[in-house]
Every structure is written in C-alpha cells, then in structure tokens.
Amino acid sequence: METAQTFNSWLLGHVKESGLSRPKIAKSIGCSKPALDKWLSGENTPKVTHLLNLCHLLFEPSEASMYYLYASNLLGDQHVDSNTEDEDPRAAGPNGAA
Fold first, then answer.
1. What is the distance between the alpha carbons of residues 78 and 55, in angstroms, rounded to a whole number?
2. Residue 89 and residue 4: Cα distance in Å, rounded?
3. Fewest C-beta in 10 Å: which of 14, 40, 86, 93?
4. Using CA atoms, how far apart are residues 15 and 92, in angstroms rounded to an integer?
5. Cα dihedral sign for 39, 7, 48, 57?
6. Contact 18, 48 (CB under 8 A)
7. Residue 12: partners with Cβ closer than 8 Å, 6 or more residues away
8. What pLDDT tens digit does each residue of the chain (98 aa) get?
9. CA dist., res. 20 & res. 33, Å (int)
10. What per-residue confidence (pLDDT) applies to 2?
11. Alpha-carbon separation of residue 50 from 3, 4, 72 (angstroms)
C-alpha cells in the first residue's frame, strides 16, 4: 500500500533537489529561516504568497502554477492564509508595514 505524500516531505525533497541553501531560499521568498524550517518539519505551513514564491523559485516558470496547485492540494485544510509566524521582520517596512 502506498503512503500518501505530505506537504513537508514534498517540500523537503524539492529543496534538496534545488541545491539552494535554506537561508538563501528563505531570503528569496521573504520569510525567516526558522519559518522555513517549520514548514520542512511539518510544524507549520506557509502563507499563500510564500507558497507561490517557493514554487516560482524551485520550478521552471512553465511548471510553477502546476506545482502550486499540487502543493495547495497537499496542504488541504492545514493551509491557513492568516498564519503570521512565517513573516520575516526584515521584510517589513516602517511600523511593521510590508
């Protein structure tokens, strides 16, 4: 019997395949490294904008939308767009405005 793939295992595989460091990925998509680590461990999930940025970073432009939809499907009900733990405070402007 085949085990269903989880979002964090899917993401971890693609991060490893990309050859990019976790700090580089986090900086490129505008989140903190601890937030990315939480996504990779399955402790938390990314906001929609970070997930979309991840797909554009990790995949060819012609495939990014397809992988975004696949990842969103893996997240299912876990995906909460109001999650703020994955914000990078360095990306915020004055008074915390992005």
1. 18
2. 34
3. 93
4. 25
5. positive
6. no
7. 40
8. 455 689 999 999 999 999 999 999 999 999 999 999 999 999 999 998 999 999 999 999 999 999 999 998 888 866 554 444 545 544 544 444 44
9. 13
10. 52
11. 26, 23, 12
Q: What is the pLDDT of residue 16?
A: 96
3-state helix, strand and coil shares in percent for the chain, rounded to the nearest 5: 65, 0, 35
Which two three-digit tokens encode residue 19?
A: 């050859």
Q: What is the residue type of 82?
A: S
Tell me the C-alpha distance between 79 and 33, whole Å.
19
What secondary structure, in 3-state letters, does the chain show? CCCCCCHHHHHHHHHHHHCCCHHHHHHHHCCCHHHHHHHHHCCCCCCHHHHHHHHHHHCCHHHHHHHHHHHHHHHHHHCCCCCCCCCCHHHCCHHHCC
pTM reported for the whole predicted model:
0.72
